[in-house]
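Team,

Forwarding the record for the chain on the shared tracking sheet. I've put the sequence and predicted structure together so nobody has to dig through attachments.
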Amino acid sequence: MAYRNGTYIAFHANGTNIPGGNSDIDYYNLMKAWAELNREFPLVNSHEKTGQIRDTSAKETLRRSLLERLRNSKNMVLILGPTTKADTDWVPFEIVKAVDDYRIPIIATYTKVTAPIYMPTSFSQYWPPALESRIRNNTAHVIHIPFNKKALLDAIGQFGHDALPRGGGLGIYNTEAYRNFGYPG
């Protein structure tokens, strides 16, 4: 059995591994920087627990590596930005495997949202179809948060395959939690 202590981070790379505002990779890199520069953001990044893959790796090699990473994960952070829904390749695959096969919760974090999220359905325009269908059929366990360091840290530490968020696919934090994350309340 896999040792499931990692956090799998899913994001739409938009065909590039170069930062620059055209994909969610900037937010992934920011999370890695928080973990490297600040001991207050401990992150066991599932992507760093297996061998590195180059963009030129065969699709089957990439698929096997992603599955291994998911198997070793306790949760998934799904970075949702304006282009994420357009991904028809890896993000849907990762969502399907995380929910259907490995039964890990999803921490849906929205890059363009700066306020607390109390009505996740208001952000359904960001949801890839694989996520939306699993929210609607009640197979996904999702906590919805803005892209905020403190909220991410709390969710990563709190939710896992053995500690699912309440609310099924529409889990939220309450006002008190958001105050603790630094939001006015």
